[in-house]
Amino acid sequence: MKKSVLIIGLGRYGRYVAKKMNELGHEILAVDKDEEKVNLALPFVTNALVADTTDPRFLESLGVRNFDLCIVAIGDDFQSSLETTLRLKELGAQYVVSRASRGIHEKFLLRNGADEVVYPEKQLANWTAIRYGYDHILDYFQLGDDYAVYELPMPEAWAGHTIGELDIRRRYHVNVLGIKEKGRLTVEITPATQCAAGDTVLVVGHRKDLTKFFHI
What we know:
By secondary structure, the chain is α/β, with parallel strands linked by helices. It is built from nine helices and eleven strands. It has helices spanning 12-23, 35-41, 56-62, 78-90, 103-111, 120-133, 163-166, 168-172, 207-213; strands at residues 4-8, 27-32, 47-50, 69-72, 96-99, 116-118, 139-143, 147-153, 174-181, 184-186, 200-206. It starts with a strand and ends with a helix.
């Protein structure tokens, strides 16, 4: 469903978010106090404004309660990020996602109106450590503190067998979500699904079970 999105802060992170939102078909109003950054975002936003969002009169003029989502992507001025987040919520914003660049920022933003906080540097650092800390993890997606989805090369012992024959759920306490063959993903997994050498497998499960799974 198409959403109306307000993005405040058009540094590299804000522009990447705006570009992706545009690709997904959403309507975007982007705001930054730096005209050069606004100009860089113009090709992939519906509208853009040069303004200081710590000015309550400006934010009020936007009618923020009419946006499905407000993203505060300010990364280099925490005071402005905090004030903007707080005022958005005071003006009736439906859902506010704010960017943090430090752990303490995350706590303050949550206490002052943010419905959710993203911490790009921390999230990317965690992904990098797990992705490259093991020799055979191809991709990874965290699902809370204890569960995650991993993409792994097909274990040699599985090649030539079906999911049902391997009895993966009972033996390893993980679930197979999909299998990739030459980059093409299949998610219609049944007990008859064949495992082949050279494929990759997407599995989901508890972290401790997945750790055991890595050593198959």
